[in-house]
Amino acid sequence: MPVPLAPESSLHLADGKVGFFDGTGGAFSSDVPPPFWLFVWAGGQALARYVLDHPELVRDRSVLDVASGSGVAAIAAARAGAKRVTALDVDPQAVAAVARNAAANRVAVDTRAADVADLDHAADVILAGDVFYTRTVADRMTSRLRRAHREGARILVGDPGRGYFPERLFTRVAEYVVPVPAALEETESLVTGVWEMHATNGPR
Q1: Full-prediction pTM beyond 0.85?
Q2: Do residues 110 and 86 make contact, with C-beta atoms less than 8 angstroms apart?
Q3: Which residues is 65 bridged to in the sheet?
Q4: Which of 63, 43, 62, 57 has the alpha carbon at shortest distance from 3?
Q5: What is the 3-state secondary structure (H, E, C) of the chain?
Q6: Per-residue pLDDT tens over the stretch 49-105
Q7: Could you tell me the domains of the chain?
Q8: pLDDT tens-digit readout, 184-193
Q9: Side by side, which strands form the sheet with 154-159?
Q10: What is the C-alpha to C-alpha distance for residues 143 and 158, in angstroms, rounded to an integer?
C-alpha cells in the first residue's frame, strides 16, 4: 500500500486496523523482536518526505538508514539518487522486509542485520526514524550517532516526540503532520519533526 506521507513508495504493511501486538495475542515476548517492520512509523515517513523533497541532501552520497524497520527512509534515499543505500536493523525479519520493499519499489538497497552499537559502516548521511522510544535504545542510539557525527556524517532524525529524544543535540529543519494508523498510535496523525544533529563539545 502507498506510504501516506510519501506515496511515491508502496510497502508491504499490516492493514491499518491491525494493532502492534495483534499477531501475538496481545502479549509482548522478549524472545522475539516486536514486528516494527510491519508498520510505517511517523518518524520514518517524515524522513522519507524530507529526503524526497530535498534530494540534494543524499544525491551521489552514501546513506545509512539505522533501525530501518520497513525501509521507508532507505527507499526514499534510493529514489532521491543516493550513490549507495544501506539499511540496518537488529531484527533479521526487518532486514528481509526491507529487501522485499526495495524490490517492490525497484530500487537498490543493501541490508545488514546488526545492532547500531556495533556499527562500523561509514556513510555520508545517516537517517534514523522513530529510534528514541525507550531509554536504553535512546542512549545507545545517541552515543553511536554522536560518534558518527564527529566522524563527519550528516545525521537526520525523524521523531514525533517519543519522550527520549535528545532534542538538545539537534536542530529542527522540518515539521509534518503525519497520517498514522489509529490502531497503532491511538490517533490519526502525529506532528513529527525532522531534526539535524549539530556540533557538540560534550562527552560521548
Answers
A1: yes
A2: yes
A3: 87, 127
A4: 43
A5: CECCCCCCCECCCCCCCCCCCHHHCCCCCCCCCCCHHHCCCHHHHHHHHHHHHCHHHCECCEEEEECCCCCHHHHHHHHCCECEEEEEECCHHHHHHHHHHHHHCCCCCEEEECCHHHCCCCCCEEEEECCCCCHHHHHHHHHHHHHHHHCCCEEEEEECCCCCCCHHHEEEEEEEEEECCHHHHCCCEEEEEEEEECCCCCCC
A6: 999 999 999 999 999 999 999 999 999 999 999 999 999 999 999 999 999 999 999
A7: 22-197 (3.40.50.150)
A8: 888 999 999 9
A9: 110-113, 84-89, 62-66, 125-129, 154-159, 189-197, 170-179
A10: 17
Q: Could you count the other beta carbons within 10 Å of the beta carbon of residue 34?
A: 15
Nearest C-alpha neighbor of 51 from the set 75, 19, 67, 68: 75
Residue 150 C-alpha cell reads as: 564527529
